Amino acid sequence: QQEKEDLEGKLKLREHLSQNASKSEATPAPSKNVDLEMKQLQCKLKNSNNEITKQSATIKSLKNEVQEKEERIRELQAKISRLERDLNMKRHLIEDLRSRVKANQENEKTSNETLESLERKVKALAEDCSNKKTSIDSLKQRLNVATKEKSQYEQMYLKAKDELEKKDLRLTNLESKMVETESAMTELETTASQQLHGLAKQSGQALETVQKKLLLANDKVKEFMTFVKALTRELQYSVQELRTKIKQAKKMGELRSCTRSLSQESVQLAASILNVSTADLEEILEVEEDEETAKAKKEFEKDKEWLQYIQKLLEAQFPFASYLMDAILEKLNEKKKLVEEYTSIMKHTV
């Protein structure tokens, strides 16, 4: 453009000079040179105009290319920012999963310790059960011995009764002989012997009925004791079963809520990052809290105390029916509350 301006200035000067030269006709030879220069300058001006048009066209094409590249750069920058955001999210997710894995490992350690302690308790209870079985066997043997002794005593009682009857017969014979010797004395003795015999029979029959009633009463008491013990054990077993069902239902609900809160894509992504299956990841995400184990221990201790209290009531002196009724009603109310809680949990989980 500067060359164009210079050439245009020169052209103007040449035109001015040619006009002056045409006015002054004294020097005609230099005007030809001026025309030639004018033509040369016009040619140069045309060439420069052509070059300017070419350069402006190239500049426009370059500007278009620059704009396209800038748009491409903007798209790439947006893509890079999106990728950086995704990368940061993935890093946060990996860190979160690592922290969860650490927490699950710690919880697994605690659960293993609790399992070991429970196994020890189970072994101790098994040993206690075996000891109780041996004691029950020994008691059964003693009972057999007692029944044998009872049968022996009954046989002795029957023998004594037979001997007594024989002696009664001898006494009647002697009395008949005494009647032959002294009629008055025999009459008195026979009446006295008859009265004594009746009294002896009545006392023997009364003793037999009392013994039978006492045996029946003992059998009834034993049956009542076994019924109460079986009822309390069944109540305790049903309450413990309901507690375990409630715990399992709560765990299933927590697991379902946890799996629902996490999307399937995130779970699969986490599983692929950790190089495990989704099922293993769900097992890792399960957490058993220490509070629940402590609560279960307290409930087990309460059940144990309740059974001991009922055993004391059964071993206590009369009357104890009202206290026994209150204790059983308390356990039944607890069972009712647990059933309501289990049904509400199952409704929410469904």
Automatic annotation (TrEMBL):
PANTHER family: CENTLEIN (PTHR18957:SF0). Residues 1-17 have a biased composition (Basic and acidic residues). Residues 1-34 are annotated as: Disordered. GO terms for cellular component: centriole; centrosome. It comes from Pampusana beccarii. GO terms for biological process: centriole-centriole cohesion. The lineage of its organism: Eukaryota, Metazoa, Chordata, Craniata, Vertebrata. This is CNTLN protein. InterPro entries: CNTLN.
